[in-house]
Amino acid sequence: MDFRVLHEWPYGGLRLAYLSPPNDDDFHVEILAGPVQFPKEVLDDLEVSLRHGGYQHVCLHVDSVDQTRAELARRGVDLVGEPFVVEEISRRLAFFRDPWGNMSELSETLPGAGA
């Protein structure tokens, strides 16, 4: 699909990266790689894969982590931990869970990033 690596960085024992399509720097997908204690089974059959729930998480870019968390809290959403900063990518991050326990990430660009 010709995605490009925009940025990569270590996090604990993992490696993370932002990938973007060939001609779009405004859209990116974050991927994580490295050893995990409980690896997921790799399935080659779509029908079988539909029997397994979950994913690691989807990251959503927002203008304000705090305002978004406040709105999610107002709606009774399960907030996970407190927001934190990852200086290597100039982002403030936070997580929440959907009703099925799947986590999603909120990502806010820090002021002055990329300047």
Describe this structure in words.
The relative contact order is 0.16. It is globular and about 45 Å long. The protein has helices at residues 46-49, 65-74; strands spanning 4-11, 14-20, 29-33, 57-61, 78-86, 91-97, 103-109. The protein has a four-stranded mixed beta sheet, covered by helices on one side. The protein starts with a strand and ends in a 6-residue tail after the last strand. The protein is mainly beta and 115 residues long. The protein has two helices and seven strands, in the order βββαβαβββ.
Order of helices and strands: EEEHEHEEE
Structural class: mainly beta
Nearest-angstrom radius of gyration?
Answer: 16 Å
Number of helices: 2
Helix content estimate: 10-25%
Main sheet specs: 4 strands, mixed
Beta-strand percentage? 35-45%
Which regions contain 5 or more consecutive residues with pLDDT less than 50?
none
Count of strand segments: 7
Overall spatial form: globular
Strand line-up across the major sheet: 4-7-6-5
The first-to-last residue Cα distance is 30 Å
Mean pLDDT: 87
* Oligomeric nature of the chains: single chain
